[in-house]
């Protein structure tokens, strides 16, 4: 008996009246994960389209692959470079034991050694995220009697990629649970949330455990190593001092710098963004609006200038490649559920996030990275933006036909 036939044979036990009726959500999750749904509408009107929720979420996960691959290599590269600077011959712990047993080594010039070392940080965080967040998703699906949506696979991947590699696994689990419950399930689940679940979980960890989520010692997972991030240098000394940490614009664009697991490479984000725009998963108005808002606000700060705040002088093209801006722009700003849904509203929504990101980065001395909070701020105002746009359209049509 094949897998398809076996799933069909046990399906009646999960349908209404069956022995395991209340666990239908679990059965449906496994079935649709392995095979395309066979259900079709039974009454008119019929809408036929090849792009369903599963395919949409699959495309988004595929778009993150460049960030995943770069993130694993860069995490290992930064860790191996730190070990070399500290004069250490092994990473220690279970990761060091694996690397020593395999004889891979810790050379920052060895592509494979860096990739494997980074993988040993990425994989446990992803497994814990899937386990903790997945259990929450299944629990709510069983209680409410609805399907387990594929949206969690996207949220889980994005959540992992915006965490520092040094994040304790118990905090990883706590953050994704908070993000799933508070960021999505209390609003009714996938398609009804007003906040991005991945960013909600990340923001919770930042404010609940700032020592593990910020500072100069959390971005490279090597005990005793401390290195300034690009934005912390800009906040204290200005973008002209980035050369002191060996970083020029092209290094930042490619992602040769410290940061969260998958946020450092603007090039990897650009590749993913092109794919999302080409497949029409991402709306280009959201991206363009955010970039225009960033350019306008940073240019305004450049013109104003400041004798005490060197971040005022950072030009817009530096904002695009440092911190988590590029990742947030491509994968978070374009998230369709929490973003504005009207075409005009998308421009204003994107511009609001771009303005807020630069405003937080430049004016708030305690928080050099502003993209996460800017996007959550935009999420809150997205319904209001759409409301204003719709009301304006109604008034305009009344005047035209009145």
UniProtKB/TrEMBL annotation:
It comes from the Bacteria. It is a multi-pass membrane protein. Pfam families: NQR2_RnfD_RnfE (PF03116). Its cofactor is FMN. It catalyses: a ubiquinone + n Na(+)(in) + NADH + H(+) = a ubiquinol + n Na(+)(out) + NAD(+). GO terms for biological process: respiratory electron transport chain; sodium ion transport; transmembrane transport. The keyword Transcription does not apply. It is found in: Cell membrane. Its EC number is 7.2.1.1. GO terms for cellular component: plasma membrane. The chain crosses the membrane at residues 56-73, 119-145, 157-182, 252-277, 284-304, 316-334, 346-364, 370-390. The keyword Flavoprotein applies. The modification FMN phosphoryl threonine is found at residue 229. Keywords: Cell inner membrane, Cell membrane, Flavoprotein, FMN, Ion transport, Membrane, NAD, Phosphoprotein, Sodium, Sodium transport, Translocase, Transmembrane, Transmembrane helix, Transport, Ubiquinone. GO terms for molecular function: FMN binding; oxidoreductase activity, acting on NAD(P)H, quinone or similar compound as acceptor. Composed of six subunits; NqrA, NqrB, NqrC, NqrD, NqrE and NqrF. NQR complex catalyzes the reduction of ubiquinone-1 to ubiquinol by two successive reactions, coupled with the transport of Na(+) ions from the cytoplasm to the periplasm. NqrA to NqrE are probably involved in the second step, the conversion of ubisemiquinone to ubiquinol. PANTHER family: ELECTRON TRANSPORT COMPLEX PROTEIN RNFD, NA(+)-TRANSLOCATING NADH-QUINONE REDUCTASE SUBUNIT B. NCBIfam families: nqrB (TIGR01937), PRK05349.1 (NF003756). Belongs to the NqrB/RnfD family. HAMAP family: NqrB. This is Na(+)-translocating NADH-quinone reductase subunit B.
